[in-house]
Every structure is written in structure tokens, then in C-alpha cells.
Design brief:
The protein is α+β, with helices and mostly antiparallel strands. The protein has one domain. The longest helix has 21 residues.
């Protein structure tokens, strides 16, 4: 599996369920330590705060598109 940076330059991670909980699969392998997960969570929160208005606008546009498709069906 190949990972590409997101359009914002951040590496992409996938959350997977396993027998004893969850793990993150990323471009350099599994992130297993709390410290690593905490760093990425902090970066994600910073990103969300910085681009909050853009994220809200994007979600509203998608909601409108979904509603239009639903009404056309």
C-alpha cells in the first residue's frame, strides 16, 4: 500500500481495528506509541483550527450536493 501526502502536505494514515483495539497504519509503518499518536492528534487539531472556516464551507457544499442527488433520485 502506498501513502501519498494529503493536498495539505500531511502524511495520510489509516485507522484499523484489531483484536485488542485499534492501530494506525502510516507511510513509515504502524504508529504504536502514545507519544506518536499524541503528536499527530495535536497537528490535526491545529490544522482543523487553522482551516475551520474552509472545512465548514466544504462540508456544507457536500451536504447540498448530497441533498440534490437524493432529490434527483
Amino acid at each position: 500500500m502506498r501513502f501519498k501526502p494529503s493536498s495539505f502536505g500531511y502524511p495520510q494514515y489509516e485507522l484499523h481495528k484489531c483484536a485488542d483495539g485499534y492501530y494506525l497504519l502510516g507511510p513509515t509503518g504502524n504508529i504504536a506509541t502514545f507519544d506518536e499518536i499524541e503528536v499527530w492528534a495535536e497537528k490535526l487539531l491545529d490544522f482543523a483550527s487553522e482551516f475551520e472556516d474552509d472545512i465548514i464551507a466544504h462540508n456544507l457544499e457536500n451536504d447540498i450536493k448530497i441533498q440534490q442527488r437524493y432529490e434527483e433520485a
